[in-house]
Amino acid sequence: MKKASILYPFAGIAIGSVLGYLYYHFIGCSSGTCPITSNPVNSTLYGAVMGGLLISSLVRK
User: What are the pLDDT tens digits along the chain (61 aa)?
Assistant: First the structure.
């Protein structure tokens, strides 16, 4: 396994975290009834998980 292939999922996690927070900040749910987008921590963690999974599924092994 190459060093570069190990870094891709971490990059996906970082990018997903930023995008998750930006989604909360600009689009998020103001009423508090949305389980993911009503809280910045939940939105950031969800974005990190989705970013990591997406990038790791696209990387060739």
Answer: 677 678 889 999 999 999 999 999 999 887 878 888 889 999 999 999 999 999 989 887 6
Q: Among residues 53, 61, 60, which one has the least CA distance to residue 16?
A: 53
Q: What is the pTM of this model?
A: 0.85
SS3 per residue for 4-53: HHHHHHHHHHHHHHHHHHHHHHHCCCCCCCCCCCCCHHHHHHHHHHHHHH
